[in-house]
Amino acid sequence: MRERSLSMIRVLFVCLGNICRSPMAEAVFRRLVEEKGLAEQIAIDSAGIGGWHAGEPPHAGTRKVLSEKGIPHDTLRARQITPADFTEFDYIVCMDEENLSALKRMAPPGKTVYRLMDFAPHLPESDVEDPYYTGRFDYVYQLVEAGCRGLLDHIQANKSPSK
Q1: Beta bridge partners of 15
Q2: What is the C-alpha to C-alpha distance for residues 16 and 35, in angstroms, rounded to an integer?
Q3: How much is the pTM?
Q4: Which terminal residue of the chain has fewer beta carbons within 10 Å of its beta carbon, N or C?
Q5: Catalytic residue, candidates 45, 85, 90, 130
Q6: Annotated catalytic, 130?
Q7: What is the per-residue pLDDT across 115-142, written as a single tens digit (0 to 9) for each?
Q8: How many Cβ atoms are within 10 Å of 60's Cβ, its own excluded?
Q9: Would you call 15 a catalytic residue per the annotation?
């Protein structure tokens, strides 16, 4: 992770194991941020609730979808969320209700944790399903892209996180 400047917004995407949804969101969001010329203002990372896959690249299904979309993913490696992440990151954005519950148990008092689909209210889904179990990586990409676009719009409109 790059050094933090005082004006930099830091975003962490979280899913269960950090090999499917959250690295996909990290890569998609990074692409959107770069397209808007905001790479020096928004830092992005991802992590998993569990550490089972620490050090591994994203799942083959995630890599396939990202490659098809021309989105770089070669440097992504799974890691487990740490207590320091709750102070280091302005936005902690998870993929489903299970992740949200786990993160709320870990988070210090007053720290807001978001679900990615909170930023895509025009869609009926509240959770991004886990393609590790469903195999629906293309569908998950659609949800992730919509949520990431909404999150970037939110950040640009607010310039700072709501705590």
Answers
A1: 48
A2: 28
A3: 0.93
A4: C
A5: 130
A6: yes
A7: 999 999 999 999 999 999 999 999 999 9
A8: 11
A9: yes
